[in-house]
Specification:
The chain is mainly β. It has one helix at about 5-10; strands at about 20, 25-30, 35-40, 45-50, 55-70, 70-75, 80-85, 90-105.
Length: about 120
Amino acid sequence: MSAERHAETVLVRGAHAARGESGEKLLVNGARMAMRLWEREAAGTPKPEHSNPYEYLAYVVEGALRVTVDGHTFEARRGDSYCVPAGAKYSLETLEEATVVEATCPSDRGANTFDE
């Protein structure tokens, strides 16, 4: 490793995490992937069908979601995880107030933490 790193480039303290446009907490953002946290999303909250140029993995910390990926619908509940491939059309609805951690690859925010 040739580049010196500051703590902020590899650690984001939850209390200081920035918020995204939709209220999500923007967690650590690495060279190839990023994490974000959706906290206490209200039941009944829909996310209309769309697609993203990145793959994302999600882990349901609390609550429940109804997720549809390329026409396949399932419920994801506390302790479940799921994947939405890059380019896949998907939608979701929060069935019970939910907290969800997501990781995107490549980063949905671009690589901005450090260069090696």
